[in-house]
Amino acid sequence: MMKQQPGKLGIREYVSITVLMVGSKASEDTPSLLSIQVQNAAWMIPILSAGLFFIPLFLLIKTISLFHEKDLFSVIEKLFGKYIGFFVCLVIFAISSFGISVDSRTYTNIIRAYYFNTTPVLVLYGLFMAVCAYGAKRGIRNVGSVSYLLIFYTLLSLFIALLLCTRESNIQAIMPIWGPGKWEVLKGSLKNLSLYADFFLLTMLVPYLRSSKEFRRGTWIAYIFTIILTSAATIVFVCMFDQSLGGIGYPFHSAIRYISLGSYIPNLEIIFFVIWIMGAFIRFTAFLYISALMFGHLFKIKDFEYLIPPLAAVYLLIGAIPETPIDVSLEWKSIVRMTAGPVFTAISLIIWLAALLKGEFKHAENKNSM
Amino acid sequence: MKKNILVSLIKIFNKEPQFNEQSNAKIIYLKERDITGHYDQNLATFKSIFSIPKNTDVKIREFTIRALKRRAFILYIGTMVDSEKVQQSILRPLIENERPTGKIQDIISFPVEKTTTNIGDIINNITSGITALFIDGDRQCYIFETTQVQGRSIEKSDNEVIVRGAKESFNERLADNIGLIRKKIKNENLIVEGLVVTKRSRNDILLVYEKDLVNDELLQKIKDRIHMIDADSVIDLSILEQYLEERPRSLFPTILNTERPDRAVSFIEEGHIILLMSNSPNCLVLPATFWALFHSPEDHYLRTPYGNFIRILRFIALFISVFASSFYIAITNYHVGMIPPDLLMAFAGTRERVPFPSIIEILMMELAFELIREAGLRVPSPIGPTIGIVGALILGQAAVQANVISPIVIIVIALSGLSSFIISDVSMNFAIRISRFLFIFAAGFMGIYGLAALVVSGLFYLVSLKSFEVPYFAPMTPRFFSAKDLIIRHVPIKERFRPGYLKPKDMVKQRGDSN
Lengths: 370, 515
Hints:
Chain A has about 375 residues and is mostly helical. Chain A has a single domain, classed as Up-down Bundle (Amino acid/polyamine transporter I). Helices cover about 70% and strands about 0% of the residues of chain A. Chain B is of the alpha+beta class and about 525 residues long. A five-stranded antiparallel beta sheet of chain B has the order 1-2-4-5-3, with helices on both faces. A five-stranded antiparallel beta sheet of chain B has the order 6-7-9-10-8, with helices on both faces. In chain B, strands 11-12 form a two-stranded antiparallel ribbon. In chain B, helix 2 crosses helix 6, helix 13 crosses helix 18 and helix 15 packs across helix 17. Chain B starts with a helix and ends in a 44-residue tail after the last strand. Chain B: It is a multi-pass membrane protein.
């Protein structure tokens, strides 16, 4: 218990990374995109999607924990063989890479739209990616440590921000409770499985945790946490902006512009911005590390840490392609949203099926009984 | 691999110069030999080694031992021994005692430390203040512990001032320092292990630790690091510190340097290792985390609420001293909307006639503050107070009146400067003062976004620092078992564990059931 192997993530650090990675979705354009689909029932989507995504995630984690301390890609290659495995891994890598580029561009757009209107996108974006690349190069353990140092303040500030928002909001806005109708909401949650797609990618980190049991525990803690976080944030935004939520690009940042601390300090957004951007740095640092890990695994590169700066540069270039924030949010992002959720779900299920058919579960049972 | 190519390239262009050095093979050969029984030969050897009579304070006294009826000489360095003792307890009995007896130990009242035959060994002893006795026909040399080096007495700690708790501090005498530690830990497991770091000056250092606590691997690692030092001389512990650090170029210290024996003892009790060195009025604590550098012994001497109060105060001071100036720049240059309108008017009013951009203003004042601070340190003490007055008066009042600096900036700088004094550790203090400038530039470049980017990069850097394999923010992250003495400390009864990152042999400081 006392011994700590070098470079291993503790459960606290892992949960912090995960919460920052997934939970920060509540602070970008996700709530408004949800609202476009299901209006005031948007807050239900995170819960329902989580319920739906629980099944593939549970099966995936169950399958992965059969193989001791193996990450997602190793398991895929083991189950699907060399060639199909490679192809599946490549698809996952491609989707996640595209996701990182688009998402990081979204964050840059937020920074530009709200805080630095005159600074060129490329400067903001370049600095953003540079910091992330630097952090990722320090290794996942250090990323975990920083996120553990920051998570408390991030959540606290988010909580305070949401609390202050309630003064401006109107609880009646969540009525009618099912929004456009039950069927529509269910369809919406099916479409938004990608909300939790990050959990799928995080299974790459299994070997970096001390045990797969810690990984499982950490994942479920973070899962519940992020459901509550995303849903609560969306409720607050729905109550605050009501019908107009769909038209607001980035509700969190609009909301923190509304709030004030008494009449003396009318604008608090900078304080929240600082903490939010720190969380965002962590999020993409972890993302970058994971995708370098994937790339290294795909092409058998052992010192994959050297890949991080070039990968960051590539993502920067891809992310710089869209001309306007609207393009990013509505066109590029919807591609990721449409593919990531279903594809990752399908892969999780197929992995489990393959393991089942190959008799890996029985095999493991025999091993245990021996 | 890239680095290797670079290194070899640099080597090609930067060849180490060849020096025409004189060989000292003869002396080395001499040092390895033993002394002979011949009186004259020994005398000649040592006279040549110590360059007598050129070397004025090396004394040789030739005489005849009456009891043995043999010729003999003693050799010592006059400035390092207690001449009175040599005269009274060694020389006089040897000359005056007439009763025939075979043993030197029976003649001399002064205790014989040991006998030795090796010339190198004898030289080492003499240079550290020992008296050596050579007798004609005797193949051994008698060595007497007569060292008496001049030095300071034990005084109050100057640089780490506290209100409660012990006031004494280490001085330059090793024996005193060990005594200060020994009197606080009365335990046979307290080991004081001597090591010699350098070949030429033979600077000796002492490792102090508790045998039944310290992790052997850690101890070995530290010893290995010490043995890796290949220098002719390491004069001071602070220089040794730089040799031992993993990243000597880093802005942040990874070894704690303290002059308080009570602090050293508290670290020994937790399983740390203390390094002491002769001629240095301080000690090194290895390994040290951010928390060790950030805490002050006062935190524990005061009652828990008071101790925590000053801890939180220090924590706030840390933030103010790092971020006050940069935050001011970011807010006034990039995010003006954040300032309440009335305050903004006040700012604008005071800045109206100032011709410089605020970053220049801040940099000027920061520089001025650092100048006053450094000048106040270096100035001879009789005119010390003047510096404070001159600094405050001229730089504050006059700069404002001349419309060079706005009063707001003076407030900001004074606040951040004042706060920086609260961080008591000298190295940490420097780290924070220097990083303040980095933050000012970051804020000037990109406002709060640049600031946040630098903070996050700084955190990434800090968590990756290690002090003898112990992460900088341990035991907070990565987490280890510990007394949870981080930002807030518990009451002493609840502090049950030694820090887990040291992997001590005995983890529990106080068992809950034993009282």
